[in-house]
Amino acid sequence: MTTVFLNGAFIPKSEAMISVDDRGFLLGDGLYEVTPFYGGVPFGLDRHLARLARGLEWIRIAYDVESLEAMHRELLTRNGLENAERSMVYMQITRGAAPRTHYFPEGDVTPTIFASAKAWSRPTDEVWNRGFRAITVPDRRWSRVDVKTICLLPNAMAFQAARDVGADDAILVRDGVAIEGAHQNFWGVFGGTAVTHPKTGHILPGITRGVVLEEAHAAGVPVEERPIQVEELIDAEELFFTGTTGEVRPVVEVDGRAVGDGRVGPVTRRLSDLLLARIEATRDAAKAG
Fold first, then answer.
1. Domains of the chain with bracketed CATH
2. Bridge partners, residue 137, by sequence
3. What pairing do the DSSP bridges indicate for beta strands 30-38 and 86-94?
4. Cα three-residue angle 163-247-159, rounded to 5 degrees
5. What's the rounded Cα separation, in Å, for the pair 64 and 70?
6. Whole-number Å distance between alpha carbons of 184 and 85
7. pTM of the full predicted structure?
8. What is the pLDDT of residues 87-145, one digit of tens each?
9. How far is CA 66 from its chain centroid?
């Protein structure tokens, strides 16, 4: 039986209930995070919680995230995932249940804290080496994408547009810039240099994005943070996404046109190898300690 965490208690998922007055349900008034675990060892949990804390401060939900690391670990154990090759914890914090108003509720309202855990797997080598197809779609998200809100309708619409034409992913285009994926950061390779959009309010500061940048710098892989104009995509040698469960995800076709030679390129492979090596080293160090 699946166990979830809800408002301080670990309970069967079938017994979990949230008020119909919850502002997350009514207004999308909340944030979420997804943290990966490898062999029961979290990867980047401190960064995920720091991003969550920043977001909570910005949307003015008073909640101390300090206790959440222990909750993540306990949730994995209760679901028998402490040794799973790959697992994840999804958590969501909303402002809580209150009369529906477009302004913040008056008086003290207790935030709703929910988390669940499950196993996941990366694509097989055959699928990954074949690469993935994407389409470009307009970016209709709000102007503070750096805040990881649960308001994901524009992202869902973009993904559905991709599925409707048999593609795997969507690249969001804002003001002529191929800015981000529907749920991952977006990269291009031009002249051997890996390029990704700089941190602004229009992209989520991805944890995996940050790790890949660190590993690229350490390994001497040329990287640049700048906007990628949508017109540049036709000249890209390689394209790929980075994300929590996508890791490094190669793109070999955009809008029906092959990227480069239509195969996963060497920079994408190199950065994927570096990320996986960092994950393995983090896991092994935790196990040894």
1. 3-119 (3.30.470.10), 125-280 (3.20.10.10)
2. 172
3. antiparallel
4. 15
5. 13
6. 22
7. 0.95
8. 999 999 999 999 999 999 998 999 999 999 999 999 999 999 999 999 999 999 999 99
9. 21
Chain segment 251-274, per-residue pLDDT in tens: 999 999 999 999 999 999 999 999
Q: Any residues with CB less than 8 A from the CB of 10 and at least 6 apart, and which?
A: 3, 4, 74, 75, 78
Determine phi and psi for 167, rounding to 5 degrees.
-95, 165
Q: Give the angle subtended at the CA of 94 by the CAs of 53 and 99, to the nearest 5°.
A: 140
Instruction: Say if CB 148 and CB 50 are below 8 A apart.
Output: no
User: With contact defined as beta carbons under 8 Å apart, do 245 and 34 qualify?
Assistant: yes
Amino acid of residue 131: G
- Active-site residue 148, yes or no? yes
Q: Do residues 266 and 212 touch, judged by C-beta distance below 8 A?
A: no
- Which residue out of 13, 148, 199, 287 is catalytically annotated? 148
* Number of C-beta neighbours around residue 285 at 10 A: 10
User: What would the two tokens of residue 239 be?
Assistant: 């394209």
Percent of the chain with pLDDT over 90: 98
Handedness of CA 252, 258, 259, 260 (dihedral sign): positive
